[in-house]
Amino acid sequence: MDEATQLVAQFEKNAKEEVRVSIDDFRGRKIINLRVYYKADGGHWLPGKQGLALGVDRYRDLADALVKLGEELEAKGLLGGKSSQ
To answer: pLDDT tens, position by position, for the chain (85 residues)?
Structure first.
């Protein structure tokens, strides 16, 4: 990760992948970056193609969508404890 990247959160997706949430600079713009990283040969982490990048001005839209998703998952009884894998 370079100095223009501010890692905000990360969590394991599976044994070989993790999801990282960061604030990055891209072409002079601040973006929210949700990216899947994979463990390469040698054990170091590399960014994969899977991910989502949005301008920080779209944060509230993303947050609202995630709240709605949580409500829907809760209503359908799909949420267990802190994380369901």
So the answer is: 666 899 999 999 999 999 999 999 999 999 999 999 999 999 899 999 999 999 999 999 999 999 999 999 999 999 986 654 4
Pairing of strands 29-39, 17-26: antiparallel
Q: What is the CATH number of the domain that holds 44?
A: 2.30.31.10
* Measured distance CA(31)–CA(4) in Å, rounded: 11
pTM: predicted TM-score of the whole model, two decimal places: 0.83
Region for 66 from its dihedrals, namely left if φ exceeds 0, alpha if ψ lies in -120 to 50, beta otherwise: alpha
Distance CA 13, CA 37 (A): 9
How many domains does the chain fold into? 1
Question: What is the domain extent for residue 17?
Answer: 6-75
